[in-house]
Amino acid sequence: MKYKLINVVILVALSFQTGCLYAARYDGPYLGKVIDEQTREPIEGAAVLGTWSVLHADLAGGHHTYYDARETVTDKNGEFSIPGHGLRIMSSLEPMSVMIFKVGYQQIRSLAWDSIKIAYGEQIQWVGNKPIFPLRKLTLEERKKQYSDKENISDKKQRLLIKELNKE
Questions:
Q1: 160 and 130 in one domain?
Q2: 21 is in which domain, residue-wise?
Q3: Higher pLDDT, 40 or 55
């Protein structure tokens, strides 16, 4: 019995050492705002996808597995809210990663919420705990180039995509 307790204590200590276990953490809600980079106007209808993964410790440091995803769209003020998973105790659930997409704009690719300040620095401004994501409007040529290199798209889907891209 004593050895089992010691093993559990060692396992918990190693988990904290490798950073794969949070003793206690409150996950969410995740609030933000999406604006046009040039006009500074809010962007309504931008898709915001939040994904969560679980970090599993192993000898190589760890690997991630999918846990959950939640999606929303921005309102007329460009704001969004994605509820988190609440209070997590002794959990290896990672904070949410966010992806933001709006047709005609540069997208924010999957980015760990905790890394926003590091990845975007001064580009992203914060109002309290709410980041403001400025999206750059793409030119028609940039929009077409994004999808022109895709090989495994059928001709029918390619035509539909070009039709969608040409909408203004």
A1: no
A2: 2-137
A3: 40
Q: Above pLDDT 70, what percent of the chain?
A: 79
48 contacts 28 by C-beta, under 8 angstroms: no
d(C-alpha 10, C-alpha 106), whole Å: 47
d(CA 130, CA 45): 18
Could you tell me if 87 and 26 are in contact, meaning their C-beta atoms sit under 8 angstroms apart? yes
Asked if residue 151 and residue 127 are part of one domain, the reply reads no
How do residues 44-75 score in pLDDT, each as one tens digit?
999 999 999 998 877 777 788 888 999 999 99
CA 74/CA 105 separation, integer angstroms: 14
Q: Are residues 106 and 148 in the same domain?
A: no
Residue 146's CB: how many other CB atoms inside 10 A?
14
99 in Cβ contact with 109 (< 8 Å): yes
Query: pTM surpassing 0.85?
Result: no
Contacts of 156 (CB under 8 A, 6+ apart): none
**Tally of domains within the chain:** 2
pLDDT-based confidence at 164, cuts 50/70/90?
confident
